[in-house]
Amino acid sequence: MVLLIGASGLLGTEIVRNLTSKGVELKLSTRNPQKLAKEQPGVDRIHYLDITRPDTYSTSFSGVDTVIISIHSLFGIGENSSPKVDGKGLIQLINYMASLGNQIKHVVLISILNPEKFLEIEFFRYKLEAERKLISSGLPFSIVQPAAFMELHIAELMGKDVLNNRKVKLMGNGNLPCGFVSIKDVAQLIEQILNHGPTYSRMPMCSPDKLSRREVIEKYAEKLGVKSNVFALKPGTVLKLSSIMRFFHPGLARMMQMAGTMDSADTTEDAASTYNRFQLEPTRIDEFIDSHILNYRRGNFRV
Ligand SMILES: NC(=O)c1ccc[n+]([C@@H]2O[C@H](COP(=O)([O-])OP(=O)(O)OC[C@H]3O[C@@H](n4cnc5c(N)ncnc54)[C@H](OP(=O)(O)O)[C@@H]3O)[C@@H](O)[C@H]2O)c1
């Protein structure tokens, strides 16, 4: 039985859709089982699990031999802050799985593209620590390292504004190539990995396009025959605002520090090894934008 931790998330929802359509039996975990049961009426096994509280783990793990971990709490504050969830929580969870002896035959950890590249960002350090902990735990594993999700970072944060003739707000100049991947590709890779078994490797996922955020906005504008309208905060300003925001909303401050820091680097990565290994065709940005525009015109606001 496969347990998916983070089933309510953007990627988690796509993993559930894809795996249930292939007949894979799933157990889902969340901190809000009632809400998830409404969103996933086809899945019977939904359990409460909070990774910051090891006393909530055992019911979800009963009868489980494969675990997919697709969680983060970048914006979280207080008990749900990133240090408590992405830091301590993930390590506790890995220790717990290792303590189950031979029960767990495969752990699929959703990490992030290139965690070594941005060690000044706390979130990337947590992701790297979790990867290292899993690798050294003795648990059979596969680590997926996705770039920014197209459905959020392209459609929701940029495309939607162009489609609605609004100003697109950028945190940073948005001039350097940015790595993106569709959640559909990540969900497909996970399906393949489950069939394959533990890969004992870290698999980057990033569309081969090398477009900057501004170029993505231009593409929408061109396809729609409109003029793009962008408001961009300089990365230095974003970082200064982030230090002030720390006192009011540490989660938002973290997100701003991440955006301001990553704006000055090419965040794309050659992920051909992953796509070739599993014979997957990466979704291209152009194709993604076309499908977003088409869905939008048909009144379907989800990509
Ligand atoms: N978003 C991106 O662009 C992006 C890019 C690269 C990698 N990733 C990685 O992909 C994975 C999924 O990201 P996403 O964007 O799909 O996430 P998301 O939509 O923000 O959802 C976050 C998930 O984390 C779960 N969660 C948060 N705190 C938790 C806790 N204390 N205990 C248990 N579950 C908790 C939430 O579950 P409940 O609220 O239901 O409990 C929710 O399902 C993460 O590992 C993320 O770092 C994301």
Please, could you describe this protein's structure?
The protein is α/β, with parallel strands linked by helices and 303 residues long. The chain contains 12 helices and 11 strands. It has a domain at 2-147 and 182-205 and 269-282: NAD(P)-binding Rossmann-like Domain (Rossmann fold, 3-Layer(aba) Sandwich), CATH 3.40.50. It has helices at residues 10-21, 33-39, 58-61, 82-98, 122-136, 150-163, 183-196, 213-224, 235-245, 250-262, 272-277, 285-297, and strands at 2-5, 26-30, 46-48, 66-69, 106-110, 141-146, 148-149, 168-171, 180-181, 202-205, 230-233. The strands form 3 sheets. A 7-stranded parallel sheet has the order 3-2-1-4-5-6-10, with helices on both faces. The longest helix is centred in the first third of the chain and has 17 residues, at 82-98. The model has no long low-confidence stretch (mean pLDDT 96). Bound molecules: NADP nicotinamide-adenine-dinucleotide phosphate. The site of NADP nicotinamide-adenine-dinucleotide phosphate has 27 residues, from helix 1, helix 4, strand 7 and helix 6.
Strand-helix topology:
Layout: E1 2-5, H1 10-21, E2 26-30, H2 33-39, E3 46-48, H3 58-61, E4 66-69, H4 82-98, E5 106-110, H5 122-136, E6 141-146, E7 148-149, H6 150-163, E8 168-171, E9 180-181, H7 183-196, E10 202-205, H8 213-224, E11 230-233, H9 235-245, H10 250-262, H11 272-277, H12 285-297
Parallel strand pairs: 1-2, 1-4, 2-3, 4-5, 5-6, 6-10, 7-9, 8-11
Helix pairs in contact: 1-7, 4-5, 6-8, 6-12, 8-12, 9-10
The protein binds NADP nicotinamide-adenine-dinucleotide phosphate (NAP).
NADP nicotinamide-adenine-dinucleotide phosphate binds next to helix 1, helix 4, strand 7 and helix 6.
